[in-house]
Design brief:
Strand content: 35-45%
Shape: globular
Number of strands: 6
Bound molecules: zinc ion
Radius of gyration: 14 Å
Length: 89
């Protein structure tokens, strides 16, 4: 896995400063069927290739990020703030 993560707020930082929550999947609507919530909480695909993941910069800016990573090669493609393009540090 790449050893440096390009945090949009802190620059390139060692991966040890981050914790990973998992795949960045869309949250169901609050009134969605229980089966949709079950799928959201418990079921995940295990794709080979590019995947958006939630990463938390726990030892840096403490922001949640969405990082695009190749699950086979661990190459990093994109890193952005999870709150959106206008989020501040
Ligand atoms: Zn950061």
């Amino acid at each position: 896995m790449a050893s440096l993560v390009p945090c949009p707020h802190c620059g390139r930082r060692p991966k040890e400063e981050f914790t990973i929550r998992g795949a960045a999947v869309a949250r169901p609507a609050p009134d969605a069927e229980p089966s949709a919530w079950f799928d959201y909480v418990y079921l995940r695909d295990n794709p080979r290739g590019r995947l958006d993941e939630y990463w938390h910069h726990a030892s840096g800016c403490r922001r949640w990020l969405v990082l695009t990573r190749d699950t086979a090669t661990h190459e990093l493609y994109d890193c952005r703030d999870a709150a959106g393009p206008g989020a501040s540090a």
